[in-house]
Design brief:
By secondary structure, the protein is an alpha+beta fold. The chain has five helices and seven strands.
Length: about 170
């Protein structure tokens, strides 16, 4: 039985391209050693805050990730992520046991976007607090479907890190 976890978090502080490359290199090594597969998206932009009834005046980042593997391995890496100071406001969007992996050929798929680029993608949804409140009421997991769309389209090699077929 496989286990899958989808979460979203705020990036604090913003993550540079160099830092994203380092995160991906470390993630691929960890995932390869521990049998984890998945996809990570990083989006930067001005996000609305319904609690404050405003739009942030500075650019902030969001992570959205799916992790797949044994329950123990997924729990172990997610525990490390929760301790990582670059992640704040971590919200689990889905956690479930599955018969099959959705990202079986990717140690870690990855894509980075500006909010403007992200908002033009098929399957786009808000990455602010309004989505999190709305997502709890939905039977369909839009973040997982969105992440799977990258896998199904098979992004080019320069956008994906950790494709199992490249090793």
């Amino acid at each position: 039985m496989e286990h899958s976890l989808v979460y979203m978090s705020k990036a604090d502080p913003l993550v540079s391209n160099k830092e994203l490359q380092r995160i991906l290199k470390e993630s691929i090594q960890w995932n390869t050693d521990h049998g984890i597969t998945g996809m990570l998206i990083y989006v930067e932009g001005l996000f609305a805050s319904l609690e404050e009834r405003s739009i942030n005046s500075s650019v902030t980042g969001r992570f959205m990730q799916v992790l797949e593997g044994s329950k123990q391995e997924v729990d172990d890496i997610f525990s490390k992520i929760k301790l990582d100071k670059r992640h704040t406001n971590i919200v689990v969007l889905q956690r479930e046991d599955k018969k099959f992996r959705d990202f079986e050929n990717w140690w870690m798929g990855f894509q980075s976007f500006t909010l403007e680029e992200y908002s033009t993608l098929p399957g786009f949804f808000n990455l602010d607090s309004s989505f999190i409140d709305f997502a709890a009421e939905q039977s369909e997991n839009r973040p997982l479907q969105f992440l799977k769309s990258f896998y199904q389209r098979g992004l080019q090699e320069d956008s994906i890190f950790g494709n199992k077929n490249d090793q």
